[in-house]
Amino acid sequence: MSIVILSKKVVKRSLGMALAGGLALSSLFAATQAHAAGEPVEVWISTSDPSQADSGLSTSARLTRKGDVSFGADTGSVTYSIRIDENATRQQMDGFGVSITDASAWLLNYKLDASKRAEVMERLFGQTGIGLSLLRQPIGASDFNWEAYTYADTPNDNNLNNFSIGRDKPYIVPMVKQALAKNPNIKVFASTWSAPAWMKYTNTLNGGKLKAENYQTFANYLKKFVQAYQSEGIPIYAITVQNEPMYETSAYPSMKMSEQDQVGAIGDFIGPTFRNAGLNTKIITFDHNYLDWNYPNKVITDLKNAGKGHFVSGSAFHHYDSGDGSQMTSLHNAHPDKDIWFTEGGFGTWNDPENGTHSGFDNMANEFINITRNWSKSIITWNLALDQRSGPTLLAPNNSNRGMITIQNSDNRNDRPENSVTYKKQYYLLGHFSKFVVPGSYRVESNTYGDMKNVAFKNPDGSKVVVVYNPQSSNQNIKIQWGKQAFTYNIPGKSVMTFKWHGTVS
């Protein structure tokens, strides 16, 4: 099914009133109410069921704009009253994004012609699309690659004389640059799947641990990667020391690192090396699952105790366990001075079945709201694109993974562009955030219910965004309360809605 996102006309609004000089914001909030009675509110919807119909919605809606509503007097009562306190700020958002893996870049570059590729890039990163603002790029090969490699595969090249990102230049670097051309403010994260094989005890990319004598060489390797990408016009905002450090496999590049390994790597080698090179790239620990949050807690604690806490900016999380994201809040409470990012969320047959049920939609909607309500500054999903066989990959064909989009690839060769693209649920559901919540926004306080999910944000321009998910099968009335104004809306069962408005509460 082909679905077209309606383009949004950006209307610049002037504020109705300036703050009185010198008056405390808390006093203003207590003394007055929201300006601009009748403030218009944009309404956007995605539904889970293609057969669902309500209020003229005869087919499934995917990030579809409905008629605006307006704030009015806060009267009457409903079961779900969501009060927005825009002055109670929580974490500042870096944004929402995806990974242009080797597989994704190859498909974009070789299986789409220039016109189709430009269309896809606009829909992913452009202002008329969903405006993704983050990328997470593998440092060398990941599991979704044509081949396993690093940037320093010459054995015992301790001075890294043969270091090169040449393997990335034919199609990975160009695709990242095209994303940056659509959105120059994209922040790029980067993660290592493995150090070069010769730096490890096992002398293999797939599994094993870094040799103690090679920690400085590994730090230099990461430094050279950051510098090489910067020389290509791709600034690296942050690195994670190791993707999923508690897991090693013989199937694809991986490397085991204990908490103490990362304490030493960050505090004694990577941090000082980056500092001495004048790099301001953030260094992030962990990059693994919720339930193991004591790992980053120990790393950060030990670095602080050693007087080296300034070298670590925070921790990163994935969702491949039974945790619900509240573990990120536990870590935030332990270290409120360190940031938290969600850097990889994969979707496939295990959590996004394509059998006509609501469960995949439900899983994603719940997760995206839970991630942001639990102090994460980001949501980054995994492969931007995979083909219809869930590749190219070092794993078996027809594995359980799915990309944000599917690009048809009939023969796995660099032949003619095929120009067939399917946008998956994660594209639309992440778009309910990324299209409206811009980098630099803050999550703000809103009350929530177990059977009516929501999260709220305030953008740098003062606009407010509330994302609501109704996980129930039946339609429900909700009320959004803001200052002394409110509006009510009937939200269909199993649907996500984004509400956006301007105006001020003084």
Automatic annotation (TrEMBL):
- What highest taxon heads this organism's lineage? Bacteria
Which residue ranges traverse the bilayer?
none
Q: What is this protein called?
A: Glucosylceramidase
- Residues in the signal sequence: 1-36
Q: Which residues form the Glycosyl hydrolase family 30 beta sandwich domain?
A: 440-499
| Feature: compositional bias, Polar residues | 396-411
**Signal is among the record's keywords:** yes
Annotated keywords: Glycosidase, Hydrolase, Signal
Residue ranges of the Glycosyl hydrolase family 30 TIM-barrel domain? 94-437
Report residue spans for region: Disordered.
395-418
Return the similarity comment.
Belongs to the glycosyl hydrolase 30 family.
Record-linked InterPro entries: GH (IPR017853), GH30_C (IPR033452), Glyco_hydro_30 (IPR001139), Glyco_hydro_30_TIM-barrel (IPR033453), Glyco_hydro_b (IPR013780)
* Metal-binding in keyword set: no
